[in-house]
Automatic annotation (TrEMBL):
Its main location: secreted. Residues 699-768 form the Fibronectin type III-like domain. Residues 1-33 form the signal peptide. It is found in: Secreted. Transmembrane segments: none annotated. It comes from Eruca vesicaria subsp. sativa. GO terms for molecular function: hydrolase activity, hydrolyzing O-glycosyl compounds. The keyword Glycoprotein applies. This is Fibronectin type III-like domain-containing protein.
Amino acid sequence: MSYSQQTRRNRALSSVSTLLLSFLLCISKPSNAQSSSPVFACDVAGNPSLAGFGFCNTGLKAEARVTDLIGRLTLEEKIGFLVSNASGVSRLGIPYYNWWSEALHGVSSVGRGSDFSGLVRGATSFPQVILTAASFNISLFQAIGKVVSTEARAMHNVGQAGLTFWSPNVNIFRDPRWGRGQETPGEDPTLTSKYAVAYVKGLQETDGGDPNRLKVAACCKHYTAYDLDEWKDVSRFTFNAVVNQQDMYDTFQPPFKSCVVDGNVASVMCSYNKVNGKPTCADPDLLSGVIRGQWKLNGYIVSDCDSVEFMYTRQHYTNTPEEAVAKSMLAGLDLNCDHYAGQHAMEAVKTGLVNESAIDNALSNNFATLMRLGFFDGDPKNQPYGNLGPKDVCTAENQELAREAARQGIVLLKNSPGSLPFSPSAIKTLAVIGPNAHDVNQTMIGNYHGEPCKYTTPLQGLTQTVSATYSPGCSKVACTEADINSATALAASADAVVLVMGLDQTIEREDLDRVNLNLPGKQQELVTEVARAAKGPVVLVIMSGGGFDITFAKNDEKITSIMWVGYPGEAGGLAIADVIFGRHNPSGRLPMTWYPQTYVEKVPMSNMNMRPDEANGYPGRTHRFYAGETVYAFGDGISYSKFSHRLVKATRHLSLRLDESHVCQSSECQSLDAVGPHCESVVEVHVEVSNVGDREGSHTVLMFTSPPAVHRSPIKNLVGFEKVGLGKSEEVTVRFKVDVCKDLSVVDETGKMKVALGEHVLHVGSLKHSLTISI
Ligand SMILES: *[C@@H]1O[C@H](CO)[C@@H](O)[C@H](O)[C@H]1NC(C)=O
Ligand SMILES: *[C@@H]1O[C@H](CO)[C@@H](O)[C@H](O)[C@H]1NC(C)=O
Ligand SMILES: *[C@@H]1O[C@H](CO)[C@@H](O)[C@H](O)[C@H]1NC(C)=O
Ligand SMILES: *[C@@H]1O[C@H](CO)[C@@H](O)[C@H](O)[C@H]1NC(C)=O
């Protein structure tokens, strides 16, 4: 019903907007648009000769349309569709198309498919993903994805964005030094998987819910075991990640599997690095075998940009460029970001390294995705979402969601009695100090950003409530020089101090990993001196992707509160002020472990092993395997209120039903394969959560399980989580349905999922419950 209304509205607009669209394409992409290139594919109304083409016929099945299109292309034309800046075919009315757009936390200007040079000058910039993940709120993840895809479609309609977005990044934040950890949902496979599925759905799902259509196409990257950029002399472009099968299927693969199987993502991007000696983009087991074979990807596999070229030029994995192109295509790669396949596929075919049928196969995956996006359905203005335009970008509502996301993610790590929240009647003057307090527009939006609608810095946010004095303390976050005297003078004369410290992209970014976990340069000295001089409460706000060793601040009584704000996005300053003045009760929880500095001194970033090794003192990684001291732990985060948990229902003994012939009927087994009739068992765990504090707030119930110690199992697994909002003295029962094979299984040494028999200890906060699984 709403479709037909949209169509009527759009027809009236379409002639004007088509003109506008061609005008914009002419001014914004002069180098890309050949003068004869059509503006959109299958413009049957403007070019009646296209009407007879099967691929333009919306009445046919997508598969038939794809076959028709491939049948019309010469080999040379086909090769033009193997690369991200696909050349288009004017004689068939198909325009140039750039596949590379990004939308990590808002429509981005990274990639050549989207830009902010036309009618749309900015798009809503949400917090960097690591902070959004800290909200542990799945509906928020999806709501953000939905706003981003709406803004993306709106920009597409005026020629400023593509339809294929290479987001999200679902790699595991394995090591705190990783410069791109900020882009990810953190270190835990369960959280990362849930984030991935929700964000992908938000991007892709159409309002009608038709699985054959995509609002925009998402892409889960970077497949796989990619989480090192540039550390000491190790580069992601040549790094060989040595990963055992257990870690592979226990840690690195699950988010990708969820993306494809549960999120129905339209694309997966393979990474730069090698895994166990093979470049991921040339590994038939990882691509054709797992992604397409086992997980049944409905979409295309794309390479990271230049990774095919690097197989030859940097990794020396192949002897010729043609061989790199052929090997990757034969492994299952469909699209090459950048031009290498375009330059070398012809020669690869001529020399018999790859057949045209392999190219057809790749194209069919690429075209099928474009079909689902409506790329071959004519004027985008006459399609669903065709009515979206500049008015739908940066709306008040969208910007409010950016502020809400930042508020929900902010993690309060320390709060001494009498510190936060500040009451504006008691705190009349504030000293705001630190290199991330103001002039941090770029810092707040992290990487893979676009042009935000507008920015509000922490200083601007705070001064909307109280008057403040301000000193950056150091001119850059590197803080090689600090102006400690002016900062302490401000601190001494204000009712309270807010220090905004941390990192920016000069210290942690793509292509740059950290080497230590301390605050850079003289930041620690500045913080300590300011706290010493302050007469009132001192709040240390850390803006960063990765965690720190801030033991000094944790132990400093003069520092009364500590808060981590990630890179909080365009509305970051408003959100920080909302939390500081108690207009929002913080509920974020750390999505990654904060290790002590000694950790990185002991552990080479290039060691991929997740599990500890007692033989050589290797401590293991993440909350699932690392049992050593932490500065702050995964899941840490406090509220202005207090919440208590009570177990109201939980299974104690579970006896699994096995086939008569099952080998474990006659012999002793430690675990069972996580397939078969016994997998139908579901355990119910009901936890009552009460808000026993004096203000309303949200609380995340994190349910962990410690499995029996077989197969070198993790210390604990995050089984699931649920965020609930509770008024003062309110209580609610959270019901977890725990699937024995999916949620209680562990991965064995060969990478297979197993249900361990014996005692599983479920825990929620300090609550513990023992569940015994037997046969
Ligand atoms: C795609 O990019 C490559 C390398 O920059 C260039 O040689 C080629 O002409 C481009 N193709 C199109 C269709 O723009
Ligand atoms: C190409 O096709 C021929 C004939 O079907 C087949 O024998 C050959 O193995 C194929 N080559 C490659 C590289 O797939
Ligand atoms: C930061 O953003 C604000 C608001 O959008 C703008 O007024 C200001 O000029 C920007 N500052 C810098 C240094 O770009
Ligand atoms: C989760 O996020 C949504 C969207 O912002 C919000 O409406 C909801 O209140 C949040 N849930 C909790 C429990 O905070």
